[in-house]
Design brief:
Order of helices and strands: EEHEEHHHEHEEHHHEHHH
Strand order of the largest sheet: 4-5-8-6
Distance between the termini: 65 Å
Structural class: alpha+beta
Radius of gyration: 25 Å
Largest sheet: 4 strands, antiparallel
Bound molecules: flavin-adenine dinucleotide
Strand content: 5-15%
Shape: elongated
Number of strands: 8
Number of helices: 11
């Protein structure tokens, strides 16, 4: 089966079976209208989806029990008794104020994320105190469904967005050609751009989440990971307000820690 493929250089190359890869016009502006539409429709624009799928039962109480153990001579048997919400709040405040944050490691939160780019993934996995499971590009082939993320700066400019979509499409076409040529998916994926969408499940404890939010909710963080972090913070706050009330970039609870402040600080929240 011959397959058409645009080569940047305009060369013709042969692949297994003798099929010829041919150059097509490089810029969407040069494509006939119908073809341009078809090219662009090949891909779905992705939407980020963030879900909190699981967390430690009674996460606030779990941390507060650990804090109580540190600060009282109550027996283990009595430790969990008479736990009122004001007491939990009081203990957690004390913990955060004193920086005795290891206590917050007793509550874990698991998020499922999809419609985010491999560019985001590279930043996210720099956070070492987290557990990750990521959709494999070795075992999952993207022949039928290939989604990619378009940054808003690109999406806002129609001509640029079209050129971007076509460039991603070209990479996808080469990917298909490589697979059809017998190249394993683990090697064919080398041509997939950072824009490619992926799916992730990640687990962090409350201490790491607070740290993650301080770095990635900041206006200085890159837009995509910031959007994800802000969504995660909203979900975590809903599940455990006492653990995440005062979370976010440093400007939430004190001075900005960035060299070049953004000039749009978050609303201050008391600890
Ligand atoms: C705005 C922004 C710009 C960035 N730009 C770049 C860049 O240009 N280049 C680049 O390479 N990275 C960059 N990064 C990534 C950054 O350097 C960190 O790798 C990333 O934010 C993870 O932070 P972390 O190490 O504090 O977090 P985690 O890995 O989640 O660790 C949490 C905390 O645990 C402790 N910890 C973890 N591992 C160790 C260890 N081995 N030894 C001692 N303590 C440890 C530290 O206290 C650490 O803060 C950037 C990050 C941000 C937010």
């Amino acid at each position: 089966m011959p397959f058409r493929f645009p080569l940047p250089s305009g060369e013709r190359i042969k692949v297994r079976g003798g099929s010829i890869l041919q150059r097509t016009p490089p810029h969407p502006g040069l494509l006939p209208d119908g073809e341009k539409e078809r090219e662009l429709k090949r891909h779905e624009l992705t939407t980020m989806l963030v879900k909190l799928i699981r967390h430690t039962p009674e996460p606030e109480k779990s941390c507060a029990v650990a804090a109580r153990l540190c600060y009282s001579n109550t027996s283990i048997g009595n430790l969990q008794r008479k736990f009122t919400r004001p007491l939990v709040q009081d203990l957690l405040k004390k913990i955060v104020r004193s920086g005795h944050l290891s206590v917050l490691e007793h509550a874990s939160f698991t998020f499922a994320v999809e419609g985010v780019s491999r560019a985001l993934l590279a930043q996210l996995t720099r956070h070492r105190i987290a557990s990750f499971s990521v959709q494999s590009q070795r075992y999952v082939k993207f022949s039928d469904k290939f989604e990619f993320v378009t940054p808003p700066t690109i999406a806002r400019k129609r001509e640029i967005a079209e050129a971007y979509a076509l460039a991603v499409n070209e990479a996808k076409k080469l990917y298909d050609v490589l697979l059809l040529s017998g190249i394993p998916a683990e090697d064919a994926r080398y041509v997939i751009p950072q824009a490619a969408a992926t799916k992730i499940i990640l687990t962090m404890n409350a201490r790491e989440l607070r740290h993650f939010f301080s770095l990635r909710c900041c206006n200085r963080a890159q837009w995509e990971i910031r959007a994800m972090a802000v969504e995660m913070l909203a979900l975590a706050r809903r599940a455990a307000p006492l653990l995440f009330r005062s979370c976010g970039p440093s400007c939430v609870s004190g001075a900005c820690s960035e060299d070049k402040p953004c000039g749009k600080p978050w609303k201050k929240v008391p600890l």
